[in-house]
Design brief:
36% of the residues are buried. By secondary structure, this protein is an alpha+beta fold. It contains eight helices and four strands, in the order βαβαββαααααα. The chain is globular and about 50 Å long. Helix 1 links the parallel strand 1 and strand 2. Bound molecules: glutathione. Glutathione binds next to helix 1.
Amino acid sequence: MAEKIKIWGRTTSINVQKALIALSECNLDYDQEVIGRQHGGTFEPEFCRLNPNGNIPALQDGDFILWESNAIVAYICEKYGSAVLCPDDVGQRALCNQWMIWKITSVYPHLRPLYMKAIRPDEYDGGEALLEAAPAKMRKSLDILEAQLAGKDFIMGEDFTMADIPVGAVLKRWYTLMGEDDHHPNVLAWQKRLNQRPSFVAHTNSALE
Ligand SMILES: N[C@@H](CCC(=O)N[C@@H](CS)C(=O)NCC(=O)O)C(=O)O
């Protein structure tokens, strides 16, 4: 029997959550080694041989090792998901990747200062200017997503795809932190749709830490 996929990382990490959502969307059984923060383990030599960055998540699928959460999401969805979750069409797949990268470049950097200041104030090292600018920058990114979601159930159209995983997980955190508002009704409706999916219910509801 083939070995189960293994994921390293605590479920409270947003980047681990993304990998776990992808595994759930593909109905895959997996083992999870809970490491990171209070659990330790990320700088153990055994783990650093898998991920020299010493951060989570990391994935092992047989002899294959992968780190960087969005690469892990894409790998799981492409290898084990449907042609809808990871579109067969090269252009559609590239658009999924565009939104997944956009989460890293244009959403998370603005959410992070707000998150750190609210949840881990002792660790916040970004300065006041970054913090003050963050809500407006987040709202600008939300405007872009609002326009994309007009007339659509999910980012790519009527179907849930891998593009919804990173963006959905990060915005779940935004709404948990900031509360719901009515500035971006399409985004909020989409977020509520995601929050009903078993994969999001299972992996995005842990307390913020
Ligand atoms: N770009 C990396 C970032 C990974 C990262 O920063 N992970 C955080 C958790 S979200 C981490 O390892 N933190 C240290 C810890 O939990 O001990 C990815 O997307 O996988």
